[in-house]
Backbone:
């Protein structure tokens, strides 16, 4: 144990930092996906890397320069065939400022992702411990497992709320604030009202294309970022808990089950399986409070099949494949173009934007599932045993131990008496 702590103390790199405003962690990312989000909206690629200061500056730069140069309006008129209007609306002085910084945002997010991947590899090899919670007088944050789909749903209802669910406060408030600003100036809510009341043509009249074209990028980025960050936080929790269990509950004095020993006295073993969760640690400490010595508890975190994470397959929790990157990218593009052409089509920009979103998500998921079909039977979404817990106790303690394990969400519990009937 002292050796592990010394190793952690002298480690140069850590995989994560748990602070009062959020969890910043290193993990493998696809540089092309990060570069895409910078191309969709400068600053977003850096925010997904937790490079907040650089991301916020580039984001604000995009808002100001794009607004002054009328880039979105030029884009809108060009794709609807009104090229003369596109030429007239573009402010050439501001466009010359726009292009270099836009290219820098894309290039720098790609380069930074490659660098972070290198640091992650080195940090993983050092395998240093991390602090799992942070407490101050104004806030409390902790490492725990959360449900990725919950993050996705909250971000789908209101961008920024998914990040708030993860306690990523800088990203949450920034995205939430700018989503409200862009929604307001784009007149999207009145347009939605007109669409729902059967007047989509009026929706096209009230919408401001300059602001409206920003919405798809921020909306889908928020959902994608919240989902992937939840998955990576869960992986970090499992990694840290595995290290804790190996350090604290793999005592060399533990008596492994043996037929000879079981026949000598009252001692027996209770075997159970758990998922990685906070309930596992609560169960262990509850058992210790009932009189079971720490040296009589053995916890064995299990290695997972295909556990080595690939650079392009490090996002989806159930099978290790990046199922959401392509659907989100295609949905952003299809929603954008659906909204643009909706200004000149019968059903209006809101309905055509939703149609584009559905088609984009379906197309992206179909492509990813077909590409990754060979992995489809690798795992399923059912709960699986990730930790084996073996507890040595007396006959009188057995039922208490079993009940405690069941009460704390054990996946399975079994009394082991070698050479006798098992209960």
Residues:
């Amino acid at each position: 144990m002292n050796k592990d702590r010394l190793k952690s103390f002298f480690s140069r790199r850590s995989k994560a930092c748990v602070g009062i405003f959020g969890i910043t962690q290193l993990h493998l990312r696809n540089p092309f996906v990060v570069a895409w989000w910078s191309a969709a909206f400068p600053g977003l690629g850096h925010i997904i890397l937790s490079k907040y200061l650089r991301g916020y500056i580039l984001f604000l730069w995009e808002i100001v320069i794009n607004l002054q140069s009328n880039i979105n309006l030029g884009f809108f008129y060009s794709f609807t065939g009104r090229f003369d209007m596109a030429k007239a609306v573009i402010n050439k002085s501001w466009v010359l400022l726009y292009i270099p910084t836009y290219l820098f945002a894309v290039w720098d997010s790609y380069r930074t992702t490659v660098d972070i991947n290198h640091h992650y590899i080195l940090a993983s090899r050092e395998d240093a411990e991390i602090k799992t919670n942070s407490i101050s007088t104004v806030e409390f944050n902790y490492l725990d497992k959360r449900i990725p789909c919950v993050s996705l749903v909250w971000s789908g209802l209101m961008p920024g709320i998914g990040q708030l669910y993860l306690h990523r406060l800088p990203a949450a408030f920034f995205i939430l604030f700018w989503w409200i600003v862009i929604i307001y100036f784009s007149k999207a809510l009145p347009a939605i009202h007109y669409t729902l009341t059967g007047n989509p043509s009026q929706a096209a009249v009230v919408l401001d294309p300059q602001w409206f074209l920003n919405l798809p990028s921020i909306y889908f980025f928020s959902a994608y970022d919240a989902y992937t960050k939840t998955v990576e936080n869960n992986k970090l929790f499992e990694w840290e808990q595995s290290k804790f269990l190996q350090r604290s509950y793999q005592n060399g004095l533990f008596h492994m089950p043996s037929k000879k020993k079981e026949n000598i006295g009252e001692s027996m073993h209770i075997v159970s399986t758990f998922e990685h969760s906070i309930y596992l640690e609560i169960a262990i400490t509850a058992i210790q409070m009932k009189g079971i010595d720490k040296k009589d508890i053995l916890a064995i975190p299990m290695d997972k099949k295909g556990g080595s994470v690939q650079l392009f397959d490090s996002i989806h929790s159930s099978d290790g494949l990046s199922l959401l990157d392509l659907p989100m990218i295609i949905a952003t593009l299809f929603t954008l173009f659906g909204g643009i052409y909706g200004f000149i089509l019968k059903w209006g920009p809101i309905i055509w934007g939703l149609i584009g979103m559905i088609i984009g998500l379906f197309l992206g998921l179909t492509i990813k599932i077909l590409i990754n079909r060979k992995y489809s039977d690798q795992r399923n979404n059912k709960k699986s045993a990730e930790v084996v817990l073996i507890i040595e106790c007396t006959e009188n303690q057995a039922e208490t131990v079993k009940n405690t394990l069941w009460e704390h969400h054990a996946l399975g519990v079994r009394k082991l008496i070698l050479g006798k009937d098992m209960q």
In short: Strands lie at 16-19, 22-25, 133-135, 140-142, 268-274, 297-301, 387-393, 412-416. Residues 307-321, 376-381 have pLDDT under 50 and may be disordered.
